Amino acid sequence: MKNKKYILFDFDGTLFDSQIGIKKAIKFALAIEDIYDITDEVLESFIGPPLHKSFSEHFGFKEDKIEVLITNLRKYYSEKGYQETQLYEGIKSLIIELKAQDKILAIATAKPTRYAKQILKGYKMNEFFSSVHGSASKGELFPKDRVIGSVMKDLDLFDAEDCVMIGDTIYDIKGAQFHSMDSIAVNYGYGKRKDLVSARANIIVETVNELQKILL
Prior knowledge:
Layout: E1 6-9, E2 16-17, H1 19-32, H2 40-45, H3 51-59, H4 63-79, E3 86-87, H5 91-100, E4 104-112, H6 113-122, E5 129-135, H7 144-154, E6 163-167, H8 170-178, E7 182-186, H9 193-198, E8 203-205, H10 208-215
Parallel strand pairs: 1-4, 1-6, 4-5, 6-7, 7-8
Antiparallel strand pairs: 2-3
């Protein structure tokens, strides 16, 4: 993967450990619906997949209620949750080294674009990324293949031969495959290794250090 010019990153579970803020936002939204007994396993399963899918699968909510839940979740996240995010150790130095090699970096995330940009700015990393695309802020469902497509359009890419997508869930891998793009799955995030293997990621790494060795 060292020869790839365009490197696309997922956000949560790949660049940033966002679980504290996301879990609190989910609990906040569910508490409004008088749901308090939520296991940590269920909370963790929300990180990565589209929120619509998670609220439907775990709690059986219908679309109109899901829109309300997502609105309330993002109310908490926009005020407090996005600040409860930590950069994975070694990521910033990796990004700096990639830019030093004239790589074109981008972000394709299920997170609302404005929150991703706010967090990047807080860590003084916004200038490293040529394109940042996520979902809107009103609860719309944005499949990962659509987000990746938006990044490709932004970068004037007509094919994905010179690109690689890096992420921690099956959605990142399948989204890359939709565009015939190579993928690297990181197993230090929120996805499960068996799912990453099943999704047929080109490479699976266990640590940021391993990722660095693959890319540099």
